[in-house]
Amino acid sequence: MRKVHVHVEFQQPILGTASADPEIHERYIASKAPDAPSLREEVEALGTDAIEDRSTTVFPKGAEGQPFLWDYQVKGFFKDACKFMREADGSVSKGIPAYKGKIDGLMFVSPRHIRLEMPEGAEVGILQRPLRAETAQGPRVALASSEMLPEGTTCDFDVTLLAEKVGAKSPTKLLAALVEWLSYGQLRGIGQWRNAGYGQFACRVTEGDKVIFDNIA
To answer: What residue spans of 45-189 are helical by DSSP H?
Structure first.
């Protein structure tokens, strides 16, 4: 078993993903996340009173209003990164069989609430953007709105690896795969609208005093 620490610095603003409407969130979003916390725990963390537009996606917040990521959101990023890196030439991720199960059962993120620390003087903003869709009635445009934390926001978490390697014939090192996924975060981030570059990050991975990976400029 190994445990590494990850320090993340967001190079682009990060957008909230939770619905500001607790009823929508409880009926749909949280129910689709099998490794999410209890629905009541997650809904209570949304801080919906401060959001007037109930279509806005928000960050869950702690008792003092501090925005955070859930641990399972980071594991979701690992799965997303692994899925795409398996298609990349020469990637480590190619060698991980049944990768979703390996991430769920052998890799654990802590703490439960991963605090998002904004730069001094910064405040939570709102980003609005149009969403276009082709419907049976023709093209339609809706306005999407998300809470936004600025570039320079940071967070810290630990990842515990219960196995050094996975796979029988040609074992793959899980730590090397983790570094590959975190490196991918500079290209495809975490949070809403990541296809447009939001949520991209650099990070430093350490094990005790040893720096394993660092792409923070």
So the answer is: 71-85, 99-106, 174-184
- What are 158-191's pLDDT values in tens digits? 999 999 999 877 789 999 999 999 999 999 999 9
Q: Which of 25, 193, 190 is nearest to 109 (CA)?
A: 190
Q: Which residues contact 40 (CB under 8 A, 6 or more apart)?
A: none
Rg of the chain over CA atoms, in angstroms? Answer: 18
Give 40: exposed, middle or buried? Use CB within 10 Å, 0-12, 13-18, 19+. exposed
Q: Do the Cβ atoms of 14 and 198 come closer than 8 Å?
A: yes
What is the Cα–Cα distance from 81 to 135, expressed in whole angstroms?
31
Please answer whether residues 176 and 184 qualify as being in contact, where contact means their C-beta atoms are separated by less than 8 angstroms. Answer: no
Phi, psi angles (nearest 5°) of residue 177 = -65, -45
The whole-angstrom separation of Cα 92 and Cα 180 is: 7
Report how far residue 38's alpha carbon sits from residue 30's, in angstroms, rounded to the nearest whole number. Answer: 8
Whole-prediction pTM value? 0.81
Q: How confident is the model at residue 215 (pLDDT cuts 50, 70, 90)?
A: very high
**DSSP 8-class letter at 86:** T
